[in-house]
Design goal:
9 helices
Length: about 250
């Protein structure tokens, strides 16, 4: 019997660990998840695993962590890269994995890291209130300039004839990059619902939002999203909603 998969992360928000959960849920494989611990228990558990040392695993800087047998690894893209082939979500053609990894990294850069930095543009150790003015300014710039550029890129990927026919980023092959883009769009919509609504209504990014809806409708994903395993966004996670930042492009 293969060793169980175990996601080691904080509880209370989906966070970066959600990308790992979506892969495991899509694949329909059993896994352990520390989100069901209390907040204090989850934090203590994360701190213990970050220390590393067992079975040659080094100390790590931050969660999510992923344990499979004696192996413990960190960094969301690294975990996805590890799991993709094991779960059948990394394509089937030579070098598909590296294309998928590139797309996933791009989604995480543009629609996760950049969105996070709109509410913490100065320093992560400062509260939002301590950088409120800068945050509002950065959010306005991001919605006006970056969001259209980012959505246009994903539309271009989905219109690229080299990918062949099909609903997904690699044509007819569903991969973990589609799941990552879905989650990043979902979080961005939480942070900037007015801007995402405006972008939808332009019709310029129809393939991007169709992919979002198609991922959402996949049987295992739909079942997961409707369950108590799917945590709600909170305003202390990666994606945060502040009325002052929720602007539209002029």
């Amino acid at each position: 019997m293969s060793a169980p998969y175990e996601l080691i992360y904080y509880t209370g928000v989906p966070g970066r660990g959600e990308h790992v959960r979506l892969m495991l849920e899509e694949a329909g494989v059993p896994y352990e998840d520390t989100q069901f611990l209390s907040f204090d228990e989850a934090r203590k558990n994360v701190t213990s695993w970050l220390a590393g040392g067992e079975h040659g695993n080094p100390p790590y800087f931050a969660p999510p962590l992923f344990k499979h047998g004696d192996l413990v690894i960190s960094q969301t893209p690294n975990i996805l890269l590890y799991l993709g082939p094991k779960l059948g979500l990394a394509g089937s053609r030579e070098n598909d994995l590296y294309k998928i990894n590139a797309l996933a990294l791009t989604a995480l850069d543009l629609l996760c890291n950049e969105v996070h930095d709109t509410h913490h543009p100065i320093a992560v150790m400062l509260t939002w209130e301590e950088q409120k003015g800068e945050s509002k300014r950065r959010s306005k710039y991001w919605v006006q300039n970056r969001l259209p550029t980012v959505l246009a890129y994903w539309q271009r990927v989905l219109e690229n004839e080299e990918r062949g026919s099909g609903l997904w980023l690699l044509g007819d092959i569903f991969t973990y990059a589609d799941l990552v883009l879905f989650q990043c769009l979902d979080g961005t919509n939480y942070s900037f619902p007015k801007a995402i609504k405006q972008a939808r209504e332009t019709g310029k990014y129809d393939k991007v939002f169709k992919l979002y809806e198609d991922v959402k409708a996949r049987p295992n994903i739909a079942q997961y999203l409707a369950s108590n395993r799917r945590q709600k966004e909170q305003d202390w996670g990666i994606y945060r909603h502040y009325d002052d930042n929720d602007v539209i492009a002029e």
